[in-house]
Amino acid sequence: MMGVVAVGGLVMGIWSHSQAILLDGIFSLVAIVIKLLMMFTAMLTKQESSRRFQFGYWQCESFVMLMEGVFTLFIVAYALSVGIWGLLHGGREVEFGLAVYYAIFFTIGDWSFYAYVHQANKKVKSYLVHYDNLSWLIDAVLATGLLISFSTAWMLQFTPYVYWQIYVDPLIMIVLGIQMVSPSLKILIPSVKQLLGIAPLELHQHVQQVMDGFLKKYGFQDYVSSVQVFGRAKIIEIDVLLPLDYPIQRVSDFDEIRGEIDAALGYRSYEKWVTITFTTTTKWMARDYDNDGVV
């Protein structure tokens, strides 16, 4: 479907002399490349790990999302610059009759496909599908904006304000560029945070809540947790401090406790990487940022 939008936008944009439609085609073309990368990334993450990538391929999801966010911001910059240039240089003649038909067809198609994917992902709950569907939302908004603007411009030819037609296309470029900023940042900001290694507060608090319960249940002396997220994968490391005279000594018993903690944390097995260690000295524990006052 996105391929049809891309080809249709490029062809119709050139034919009708509309930079706004051309922008829609360019965005869809970029979206196709991103979708192919997402499919490849999804195949990699199923492998979990390899000899060269021993901690898995989950960071690839964040990298692909970063690429999509950056590409979308480039398109925003293109839309704003072309729109402003058009306004400052006397507008642009556009064949609005053809443009209206294009906008009607793809407004219906884009919103229908967005709704379908959104509904389907309620069952799948895929991180990649969620952010991939943002591109459909952006494209649907683009098509809707084109439909409203081109319909208005087409009707202007029957009024005394027909001379305003030449400014419609540049104005659409500016408006659409501004509208695309927010969805772009919704894609870009989470991916940047993940690649920078910023610990997600929600996951951190969840792990702390789970471990507080086990601290009381098994009489642990203390614990330290470290968390990170790459795409849909949750990286969770927990170091448990035990008293020297702790009654449980067998490794198999500690394995059972690990299993209990892992089950209490939740999430599907392929969505998490959990490491739980037991020690009697703080030397082998990670730094406790909650208690030393360091942000």
From TrEMBL:
<dbReference type="GO" id="GO:0015341">
    <property type="term" value="F:zinc efflux antiporter activity"/>
</dbReference>
<dbReference type="Pfam" id="PF01545">
    <property type="entry name" value="Cation_efflux"/>
</dbReference>
<feature type="transmembrane region" description="Helical">
    <location>
        <begin position="137"/>
        <end position="156"/>
    </location>
</feature>
<feature type="transmembrane region" description="Helical">
    <location>
        <begin position="162"/>
        <end position="181"/>
    </location>
</feature>
<feature type="transmembrane region" description="Helical">
    <location>
        <begin position="26"/>
        <end position="44"/>
    </location>
</feature>
<feature type="transmembrane region" description="Helical">
    <location>
        <begin position="65"/>
        <end position="87"/>
    </location>
</feature>
<dbReference type="InterPro" id="IPR027469">
    <property type="entry name" value="Cation_efflux_TMD_sf"/>
</dbReference>
<keyword id="KW-1133">Transmembrane helix</keyword>
<keyword id="KW-0813">Transport</keyword>
<feature type="transmembrane region" description="Helical">
    <location>
        <begin position="99"/>
        <end position="117"/>
    </location>
</feature>
<dbReference type="GO" id="GO:0005886">
    <property type="term" value="C:plasma membrane"/>
</dbReference>
<dbReference type="InterPro" id="IPR050291">
    <property type="entry name" value="CDF_Transporter"/>
</dbReference>
<dbReference type="GO" id="GO:0006882">
    <property type="term" value="P:intracellular zinc ion homeostasis"/>
</dbReference>
<keyword id="KW-0812">Transmembrane</keyword>
<dbReference type="GO" id="GO:0015086">
    <property type="term" value="F:cadmium ion transmembrane transporter activity"/>
</dbReference>
<dbReference type="GO" id="GO:0015093">
    <property type="term" value="F:ferrous iron transmembrane transporter activity"/>
</dbReference>
<protein>
    <submittedName>
        <fullName>Cation diffusion facilitator family transporter</fullName>
    </submittedName>
</protein>
<keyword id="KW-0472">Membrane</keyword>
<dbReference type="InterPro" id="IPR058533">
    <property type="entry name" value="Cation_efflux_TM"/>
</dbReference>
<feature type="domain" description="Cation efflux protein transmembrane">
    <location>
        <begin position="2"/>
        <end position="196"/>
    </location>
</feature>
